[in-house]
Amino acid sequence: MESLSEQKRNNESFLRNQFHSENRFGFPLVRKQDIDLRGIVLKPVSDIKPNDKSNNGNVGVHFFVDDYRFTKYFDHYEKYINLLKQYKFVLTPDFSLYADMPIWRQIESVGKNRWCGAYWQSKGIQVIPTISWSLYSSYEFCFKGVEKYGIVAIGMIGAKKSKLRFLRGYDRMLEELSPNKIICLGTPFHEMEGNIFSFDYCNSRKIGGKQ
Q1: For the whole model, what pTM was predicted?
Q2: CA of 21: how far to CAs of 16, 38, 126, in Å?
Q3: Which of 155, 184, 167 minimizes the C-alpha distance to 67?
Q4: 26-54 exposure pattern, b = at least 16 Cβ within 10 A, e = fewer
Q5: Any idea where the domains of the chain sit in the sequence?
Q6: Nearest Cα to Cα of residue 64 among 20, 113, 104, 26
Q7: Strand order across the 151-155 sheet
Q8: Mean pLDDT, range 16-32, rounded to an integer
Q9: What pLDDT does residue 206 have?
């Protein structure tokens, strides 16, 4: 009979090792999904609730809010499945990837992002991976765990403070993932190429797009 220590050690909620990985970091793979973005509105995860009467079946949930507002979706992942299932799709959590964070913390943030995506997909939820990056050193891992040629999401928070660095990362994302659609929370820079669907960040209600 396993001891309590062994039970804890072998528990899936501790190991988080139940999903396939195709990269050396062990990030689960978030598979591409074909989602029609026409007429979509986005809602921040901090505003969602059970039996959401404002949900018309065309609402996606984004995580471009402070980390403390959504860490529970990773820590207590089983508890919120039915809440998320109400909506058309969910973006993976945008765990912070700041340049002044040590690399191990940045890798952890990406790992949590991908694990949530893989878990939600395993429960029948449509998922779009959120992609973020920091310095050049993050390129080694920040685009891993995402299937190519699908839809991705990015946020423009803080991008204007380091425009050149942001654009370098954005171009590298295009090179690594070749996304067919890009959800952009905030106003994109005119230099950004790709099939961009731009959402107003302040009210998360307005969809546009250059196609």
Answers
A1: 0.90
A2: 12, 32, 19
A3: 155
A4: bbbbbebeebebeebbbbbbeebeeeeee
A5: 21-199
A6: 113
A7: 151-155, 181-185, 196-199
A8: 93
A9: 40
